[in-house]
Amino acid sequence: MAVFVLKYLIIMYLSLASPPKDTKPPFKFKDSPPGTVWLRDSVFIDVNPVKNIDYKEFLSFVQVAYNKELRDSFKNIPSYGISMENFRSYMRLCGADKDLAAKMKIPYEMTLSWSMNMDEYLNSPTYKNFPVVNVSYNQAIMYCQWRTDMVMLFYSVNSKNEKKREKYYKRIRYRLPTPSEWQYAMDKFGNNTFTNQVVYAGEKCATVEAIPQKKNLEFVYVPYNVAEMTSKEKLAVGMSWQDKDTLPNYSKSIEYWGPRDWLGFRCVCEIIEY
């Protein structure tokens, strides 16, 4: 009886708790950084965890280019009027950073906790929209840096002149969310929690495909999918497929040590200059 009452009180609390009221952003809204929605202040957040197809794009790029010279060049990239063809030529001249490319790879032979290895999970078209797993903290940090550079490049290529560049923010930076930003996201977007997507280890795949998005993007969270890294190394949040908790704790903190097949990440994007 006591257990039933406790569960009832928890359900009542969750249903009555109101999400945080959005304060007015410290800027005029422009086009949201790709893949994100506004969270608070100058911070946007990914609508889904980073997917296999996203990380594969990153891997393909670093295997061709993204050496130190190219990375440094993004610090002084023109804000508009860049030719994509000219950039590709410059990129090929720069070449790859083989050491970096090797560090960013996920071992294909790694066996997952369900019936496949990392090669099948990462490279099969079936799982392209599933959350990438077995990524280290440092790999996630580098992915955020690369994504920042790619979006700034997109803004420059897509803007033929200064006037057209005004539709985008002047300078942005993707990074991992802080624990408090994650908590705020769960409070603000609590209605976008998909509790009917539960799967279990031992089936064909323990993780869950990204929820399809409409034209107007929405932050979504799927419990019992993957826990997600925060900006604090070795600290993740959320409930993964390995959790046995019977009561929901979507902001659950969990320590991790290195890459895990129950651990993924999503980015936030901070507006550095409006």
Sequence-ordered SSE layout with sheet pairings:
Layout: H1 2-16, E1 36-40, E2 43-46, H2 52-64, H3 68-73, H4 84-94, H5 98-104, H6 118-123, H7 137-157, H8 162-165, E3 171-175, H9 179-188, E4 227-229, E5 235-237, E6 253-255, E7 263-264, E8 268-273
Parallel strand pairs: 4-7
Antiparallel strand pairs: 1-2, 2-8, 3-8, 4-5, 5-6
Written description of the protein model:
By secondary structure, the protein is an alpha+beta fold. The chain has a single domain (36-273), classed as Alpha-Beta Complex (paralog of FGE (formylglycine-generating enzyme)), CATH 3.90.1580. Helix content is 34%, strand content 11%. The protein is built from nine helices and eight strands. The protein has helices at residues 2-16, 52-64, 68-73, 84-94, 98-104, 118-123, 137-157, 162-165, 179-188, and strands at residues 36-40, 43-46, 171-175, 227-229, 235-237, 253-255, 263-264, 268-273. The strands form two sheets. Strands 1-2-8-3 form a four-stranded antiparallel sheet. Strands 6-5-4-7 form a four-stranded mixed sheet, with no helix packed on it. A hairpin with a 5-residue loop joins strand 4 (227-229) and strand 5. It starts with a helix and ends with a strand. The model is unreliable at 1-18 (pLDDT under 50).
Describe this protein with a few key phrases.
four-stranded antiparallel sheet; four-stranded mixed sheet; disordered N terminus; globular; 274 residues; single chain; paralog of FGE (formylglycine-generating enzyme)
